[in-house]
Amino acid sequence: MIFSELREIQRQFGYLPAEELRTLAKKIDVPLYRLHGVASSYPHFRLTPPPRADVRICQDMSCHLRGAAELRSAVEGAAGQIAQQDVRISGTSCLGRCDQSPAVAVNDQIFSGLTAGHLTVMIGNLLADVPLPTPVESRHRVPCALDPYQTDEPYQAIRNFVQSRDAKGALEVLKASGLRGLGGAGFPTESKWQMVRQAPAPTKFIVCNADESEPGTIKDRFILSNLPHLVIEGMILAGLLTGAQKGILYIRHEYEEQEKILHEEIRRCRKLQLLGTSVLGSDFTFELEIFVSPGGYICGEETALLEAIEGRRAEPRNKPPFPVIEGLWNMPTVINNVETFANVPAILLRGVDWYKAQGQGGAAGLKFIGVSGDVMRPGVYEVPMGTPVSELIFKYGGGIPNGKKLKGFAPSGPSSGYLPASLADVRLDFKSLADAGSMLGSGALVVCAEDRCMLDMALNSTQFFRNESCGKCVPCRVGSQKLVAMLTGWTHGKGSAADLALLDELADALRLTSICGLGQVVPAPIASVLKHFREEVDSHLLHSHCPAGVCPSGKSGATPRIDARVQLRHA
Amino acid sequence: MSAGLMIDLTVDGKKVSVPAGTSVFDAARLNNIEIPTLCHQQNEKPIGVCRVCVVDVGARVFTASCVRPAEQGMVVSTNSEKVKQARRTLVELLMTDHVSPCARERQSGDCELEALAKQDNLARSRFAPQATRRGVDDSSMSIGVDFDACILCDRCIRGCDEIRENFVLGRMGKGETTRIAFDNNLPMGESSCVSCGECMVSCPTGALTNKVINQTAIAAPGSEPVSLQELNELPFFEGVSGTFLSLNRNAVVRRRFKRGDVICREGEYGSTAFYILDGEARVSIASPIAHVKTKGAVKRFLGKLSSRLTQRQNDVRDDETGQHWIHIDAPMDLSYENPVATLKAGDLFGEMTCMSLYPRSATVRAESDCTVLELLRNVLDIMQRNKNFRAQLDRSYRQRALDSHLRAVPIFAGLTDEFIEGLREKVELLRFSPGQVICRQGDHADSFFLVRIGFVKVSQTHLGGDMVLAYLSRGDYFGETGLLKGDVRTATCSALDHVEVVRISAADFAEMNRQFPEVRHQLELVDRERTQMNRERLTALSSTPLDSFLKQGLMEAQSLLLLDLDSCTRCDACVRACADAHDGVTRLVREGLRFDHYLVATSCRQCLDPLCMVGCPVGSIRRRNSLEVIIEDWCIGCGLCADNCPYGNINMHPFDVFADVPGSPGQKKAMVKQKATSCDLCSEFAEPSCVYACPHDAAHRVNPRQFFAGLLQQSSDKSPKD
Lengths: 571, 722
Hints:
The complex is a heterodimer of chains A (571) and B (722). With 571 residues, chain A is of the alpha/beta class. Chain A is 44% helix and 13% strand. In chain A, strand 9 and strand 10 (379-384) form a beta hairpin. The longest helix of chain A has 20 residues, at 338-357. Among the domains of chain B are: 6-79, Ubiquitin-like (UB roll); 107-210, Alpha-Beta Plaits (2-Layer Sandwich), CATH 3.30.70.20; 416-543, Jelly Rolls; 548-721, no CATH class. Chain B contains 20 helices and 39 strands. Chain B has a 5-stranded antiparallel beta sheet. The chains are: A alpha/beta (571), B alpha+beta (722).
């Protein structure tokens, strides 16, 4: 409720004037500090009037690899003469357009593939009150192997269940399939549903996490565009199987097009009586609504997401209790990722054997992988679980531009850390990647060509975590900032052996004491780079030299600093 | 959790048993194992944000013991090397950006973070400190805020929410920029904070500390300290943290007065306010109610002039107010005819002296034996922010003072009792801190204000900068211009010091105008005058070239006494003439700024920003529409205006008077009382005495703008042709 009120004020005034907040606080009887605390913590809300042209350029991983920094400085140069209250050029966190890097939000509308020239013209137009062009996303749907309804009428799985009412059987199928959460953590889906089903509570909730905000992660946007009916069917099935009567689909606000598609699909479901107080004429009730996130990567953390729905600052909760016991409004709650829900109808209709047969190399099922960074054809590919990374890069992704060689890759955005080219044959599945010291995560393969500096990539990833930390707990709030400062020093040729010991201590504190996954993975990028690209880091530390010529230390042409006394401890 | 169910677990190798629902932290504590923490304290809900209390329960990651319930069979390690190392890193991280020693460490040596750092032998953090500091907030009178000492443990937030239910404090921003904020990030002193002190008492570091206004107790003879228990029992300290009160114990004393004793004397400077616990006191003005009148002998033109104290009915000056009420620093106004009133138990007086250090406005004497609390600023602030006390003050104001306050404004004198009765509960009583904006130029006009306490600065922003239109004090009103036109605010009104106003809503204001056409008519007249005057001044402002003339501040002047240095022989005849004309007290000093070949003699310049009017405790200094200063009859001779005038143009003129002898009613004795005077342009005469007296025709009284404009015109006419 708070968010809808705040949105309404922002729609009216373009920002949230202090006086309006004061009035709202009185009207809805919420302390003013809470409204302000909430409004100031979400990027979507503004507390000061916006400039006439507000240009935010994505600065994370995929866009970083595709020239976001260069684009930003070019635009800043071009707009340098214009008064600050009229134009603001700033960096922003991942906009979810990693396949069309670099992505830019201009007055909250997202564009991709723009050059500095385009942007300069756009800014000029805005200052001359010429409206922005409306970006059009193609509504053409790509056929997917996961869709059991390529030709048939959808929602058959629900029909079957309402007829059979065999919840036990359905859950057994899910269990036998081994379906695991596909948002990153990989928790067994059936087990989560079973716990909620068995929880003795009057109210239960189903929440779909469509807040994908990790750099490189774009597969949920693809699934929502192409398979919205499977996601909704999965959610309804979760409701029917667990006894939850209310579903909330939590979608990031940058996915306006997908939001429209979902609204259309929900309308269709209401017409078909798949939603409402009597699902297909039975005594089952299930309602579904869409909750648009006010923004921030941290909202993808499941308990922070719940806090956001409850109208508070998106700060993760201490666990236990887990959401299956105390979730939304303290009620048992299933929270699953978009892709997890989308898998359920196919598994129930086509069975365990079909599901297992879809994988390769011992893994089961299909997986949507976003491929971005240094590849010819960035995009989302539906592949068998267990497909080798090299196949995704060279076969699906079309290889690396300009005939360059592969240097490394992140199997799943910043959280997974970086692996070297020598491990390119690793299969994309839970076990193989865990064995390689990484993780399948959300399926966001980001590719780095030979001329990239991996220390620079680690710094970029760490900056992302620092920017997106909610600030609730000390290790993440302070530690991520200190780590960025340390790595920035390294890229400027100011590092020492003592830093490595300190980094170890800091990494342990982050991993062991942070409240949530965000804080825990902050050290992952630099740890992986130290593990796999040690020589490159040593060059920065020992010789103030960036071998790739990317970092300021290398660019400045500083004479190599060789200090024989420095003994580097291996991390 | 069923009652009585016990949970068995192992903490640091020790088998312990605790009731179900006990946290790991408490399970350890109950068994004498101390786990360090920063964000957790027993009287608040645990939130596990500092992470210092983490323990190893054998999981992938550590868990915060304060929020983790003990589980059957749990094996807890609170002090393994790994746990201690992680904890040490957290403390080191926090110390990196913590000002050290922080205010708490300096005051009482008990900053909890610094104590942990000492335990860990962390002399210096190895991490790089943040480049930008988060700053301090000095706006509260009783609590100091240092964001750089803050570790975001949220103890203050929970203290404010859970313990006191005041709901003022929260987190703002996100990630590394997160800070605590009051309301919507207002300075603490301007926020809805009630100064209960709970946040400060909860704070583990020097982020929120008690502000010591005065190191020593109020050192008045016969003052008694008030015990913490006694303070706690006073209703207006209800809800205030005991620790906080105890820290401020020295800033409040009890004083007992016998009948006839003087509690405070008009014109004296002070820094305290008084609250009457029991008994009655008489408030009065002992200075003669009269102004300085200079008269020349009938026959001779110069030489035999004399200044006398004259009452306004005997000497009606132009633009004099017909005001019947004298505004003083107490909950009531005094009548011009009989400036005496009674203060009762429950009354607070001396607020302006206490908050803004102005001289006492009146003399207060015990009418019966009475007991009084004397308070310093911080304690007064705590009281005034207390909901109960606020309600008591507000109620008393609405019941006793609103009508006299309204009627003291001549325009509103005709309001009927019924109407004021109707307003009583509808008006809003608002407080503002120094510098806070009450209404802003350009905003929609939605209310009308009456000044109750303090000074309100009215200024207008133009292309050239800000222009001060007026300083308003008790009894003045503002906000009518926008309302009458149904438009936006034409000026910005801000609190110059501690200000309290009565806010009347647009609807009630409209109703008043509808019921009392005469009021509306008067308001419109005043409004037209004010607008006209402002326009003239603005025109004058914008038509003057910005040169050294402006830089010297002479632009401020409406009228200047100029001495042409080419003709002046420094004979001082002008000064003597002025002294002669004003009973030996000259209002003219032959010194001042120079412009071209002119000396600008120090004589009232009738500034655009009349600083002399700020702080007059009885509101007796005022400007006529002609912008000359006029000092009303009830000047108590405190001399503040003379001190405030940057040009030394207000002088204190002593008079011998007969006045009451303290303690002996009916008896009078001769004493010297002073009254403020300023250049009156010798309005009795055709020409100012100084100008008349100059034997060299070097003295001129001019309008600077016209005069210098002519001069500048001449020079610019000349130069190109030459």
